[in-house]
Structure formats: structure tokens, C-alpha cells
Design brief:
Helix content is 36%, strand content 27%. It has 9 helices and 14 strands.
Length: 338
């Protein structure tokens, strides 16, 4: 694989929309990397972000030639082709979530990276957040998980459903907490303001009996991110927006009225730059041989779960459509119901 003789990773960013621009600026500021260029189908966008980051816009072939590693931050349908071309050219790849559009594409990327000895990291950003670290440190084996992630509508991200846009973050977090395969998925959802589902709710049952209920919406009036985790050892409530953890269990803390064996403890965490941490982990895997925290298999599992939710949602939609409860509202409107 390509390696800069200076011990600095030469990085190119392919796709400089909202997230790609941030990737470019973070890479340009990194002490372990040197941003060499940016690529985007929108030439004007590439010029603007390149100017801001202090690098030239390039076509993709030139970007590959100048780089040791590529950050793929293009729309999801382009992930496989761009990442596969980079790996075949001997480059390491950090690919934004989802890893690809299909399981076959995800598996192909995993095989290519393994054969080439390339670092392939998937950009499930929440895994690098201070919040995830705080939750993972406090949680035993969960029995039930409830996750809610809702936000006001933004046109960005509507090239895919809310499942691949927002819910996949919580699917990945749940999969990281539950060490068991998925046994069954039930889901409902609807397109309201875009051509794809904007609201969704999924109930995921794992083979070990754990159940997770996950809600995602991108048409809410306010942003809300929270999670509740129940285990045999206690209960953990997480308010991501306000950086607050509330734990009930046996041990230290304030006594819980009426529950003499249990105590309640509230704590918080200090946020850090999760995207910089994500890139830092990628560079450490390349330069130091550090394990890839979110590898191709993790990306494939998250995609598989998201596609299972999509399939379950389609089945539910067909059921309510057959019953007459669900009525299509025309090509420019949403679906009008769950």
C-alpha cells in the first residue's frame, strides 16, 4: 500500500458536500496528515472547498495518484465504485456511512481491502464520540434498548431514506452494545417531505432475546437524541443533547426512594471533536498498525440492519395499503401515513 516516506498520510477527499468539506478541513489541520486535493462532480464546489482548505481541485485519477489514502464522502450510491477504485490503486480508504448501497457491494469492498492489505474504515461517527465512550463504560449486557433521534427537516441527506441518513447511527450503536445476531425486525415509516422515508420506527429482536426500539425522524420541530438501556444490573438513560447520563443500579450514588438496594447517579461527559477523532483513528491504523475500530464488517452489519428495517417497512406498508388504511398521495407528495 502507498505510504508517504515522511510518516505523514497524504489524504485526498472524494466528494466535498457538507460532510466532505468538513473532512477536508479536518484533514488539512491534522498533524498526522497532509491534504493533497479534493474531487467532486460539481467542479465549482470542488474549487470552493479546495480554496478554503488550501489545496487544488483534481479529477479522481489525479487525486488517487497524489494520495496515500482517500476519504470517500460522496453520495451513498457512489461509495462502492470510488472506494473500490481507490483500493485497487493501492490506497487506504475512510468511507462515510453507509459503507455501500447493497450488501454485495459492502462484501466486495471488504474482500478487496483484505486482499490488498488496505485499511478500510467506515465513518460511523458516533463510535468516536465522547458520548459513546461514556455509555459503553457504564453498560453491561442490555436486555432492552430504546433510542430516539429526531431533527428538523434539511434537504441534505434526502437522497436516501431516514433509515440510512439518521437511524443507521443508532443501529450501529445498538449493534456495538448487543453481541448477538438479529433474529427479527418489524418496522413502519413514511415519506412526508421527500421522495424517501422521513420518519421510521423499528423494533429489532436479537437472537439472545434483547430487543431494541429505534425511532428516527427528520421532520420534527426540534432536535432530540436520547437512549434508554435496561439490563439486569440496572437502567441507564442518556440525553445526548445535554450530555447527561442517569444511572440506576446497585452501588454508589444517592438512594432511590422505596428501593433500598438501589441508588441513582447522574454524570456528564466532556465533548470532543468526534470527526477529528475518527480521522485520527484512521491515520493511526495506517501509520501505527492500530486496529480498525469500525471496520468493513461493522459497516456491513449496520447496512444489513438498515436494509432489514427497510424490508420490514415495505412489508408493513403493503399490509396497511391492502387494508385501505394507507393511501398514496401522488408523485410530489409524501405517502400520507405509516
Amino acid at each position: 500500500m502507498a505510504t508517504s516516506p515522511s510518516g505523514i498520510v497524504r489524504v485526498g477527499v472524494a466528494g466535498v458536500g457538507h460532510f466532505g468539506r468538513i473532512h477536508a478541513l479536518k484533514a488539512a489541520a491534522s498533524l498526522r496528515a497532509r491534504l493533497v486535493g479534493v474531487y467532486d462532480l460539481d467542479a465549482e464546489r470542488a474549487r470552493a472547498v479546495g480554496w478554503e482548505a488550501g489545496v487544488p481541485p483534481m479529477d479522481f485519477a489525479a487525486l488517487l495518484a497524489a494520495s496515500d489514502a482517500i476519504v470517500v464522502s460522496a453520495p451513498a450510491e457512489a461509495h462502492h465504485d470510488l472506494a473500490a477504485a481507490a483500493i485497487r490503486a493501492g490506497r487506504h480508504v475512510l468511507i462515510e456511512k453507509p459503507i455501500a448501497s447493497t450488501l454485495a457491494e459492502a462484501e466486495d469492498l471488504a474482500a478487496l481491502a483484505k486482499a490488498a492489505g488496505a485499511v478500510l474504515q467506515v465513518g460511523h461517527l458516533e463510535r468516536f464520540s465522547a458520548a459513546h465512550g461514556a455509555v459503553a463504560a457504564r453498560m453491561g449486557r442490555p436486555l432492552y434498548i430504546e433510542a430516539v433521534r429526531v431533527a428538523p427537516f434539511k434537504i441534505r441527506g434526502t437522497d436516501v431514506s431516514v433509515i440510512l441518513d439518521l437511524m443507521i447511527h443508532d443501529l450501529d450503536l445498538v449493534l456495538a452494545l448487543v453481541d448477538a445476531p438479529i433474529a427479527h425486525v418489524d418496522a413502519v415509516g413514511a415519506a412526508v417531505a421527500s421522495a424517501h422515508e422521513d420518519i421510521a420506527n423499528a423494533r429489532v429482536r436479537f437472537a439472545n432475546g434483547c430487543v431494541a426500539t429505534i425511532t428516527a425522524s427528520r421532520i420534527s420541530l426540534k432536535t432530540e437524541r436520547r437512549m434508554r438501556i435496561f439490563s439486569q444490573s440496572g437502567y441507564l438513560a442518556v440525553d445526548f443533547a445535554n450530555r447527561r447520563l442517569t444511572a440506576i443500579g446497585r452501588g454508589g450514588g444517592m438512594p432511590v426512594p422505596g428501593m433500598p438496594e438501589f441508588s441513582i447517579e447522574e454524570s456528564s461527559w466532556e465533548d470532543h471533536d468526534a470527526l477529528a477523532a475518527e480521522q485520527g483513528a484512521f491515520f493511526a491504523s495506517i501509520l501505527d498498525g492500530a486496529p480498525v475500530l469500525v471496520d468493513a464488517e461493522a459497516g456491513r452489519r449496520a447496512l444489513e440492519a438498515a436494509l432489514a428495517v427497510t424490508t420490514a417497512m415495505e412489508h408493513s406498508r403493503q399490509e396497511v395499503s391492502d387494508s385501505g388504511l394507507f393511501v398514496e398521495q401522488g408523485e410530489n407528495g409524501g405517502s400520507g401515513g405509516l
